[in-house]
Write a structure and sequence with these properties.
The longest helix has 16 residues. This protein is of the alpha+beta class. It is 31% helix and 30% strand. It is globular. The protein has a single domain, classed as Aminopeptidase.
Length: 138
């Protein structure tokens, strides 16, 4: 939760129950054979979370790649994402997929109950295509 800005905190079972009853056509569960390990969303920015014990195994890179391919198959509009500057793992995923920094800004974090810095990043269709053609993303 330390890297998420939107969820309520403390996150209670009623919050989870509400979330799973919503119809989010651009939210996908990440599952690795033993149940939910994360979520990736595109609404209108790319966001995601992954259980700490599942990080570093390539699950998020695979999920990000799938969502970006889905998006760029139907649109040339750029994809925006962000991360808190201290979240180096999330930054690595975005850089791996060709995102570049756009601006540092402050947002209100419900999780932290205060304003916090986030690094905005962007991926253009041209950059995605260049990396995909070179086989640089997988």
């Amino acid at each position: 939760m330390q890297w998420l800005s939107a969820p309520p905190w403390p996150y209670e079972s009623k919050d989870a129950e509400w979330f799973v009853t919503q119809d989010y056509p651009t939210h996908w569960a990440i599952e690795a054979g033993n149940g939910l390990i994360g979520v990736i969303a595109f609404d209108p920015t790319l966001g995601y979370w992954l259980a700490a014990e599942e990080q570093g195994q390539g699950y998020m890179s695979e999920a990000v790649n799938a969502v970006l391919a889905w998006h760029f198959d139907q649109s040339d509009s750029p994809v925006i994402s962000s991360h808190m500057p201290q979240n180096s793992a999330s930054r690595r995923v975005l850089l791996k997929h060709g995102f570049t920094d756009t601006k540092l800004e402050k947002i209100f974090s419900r999780t932290h109950g205060r304003e916090t810095d986030i690094q905005r990043m962007e991926l253009t269709a041209d950059r995605w295509q260049q990396l995909e053609n070179r086989g640089a993303i997988a």
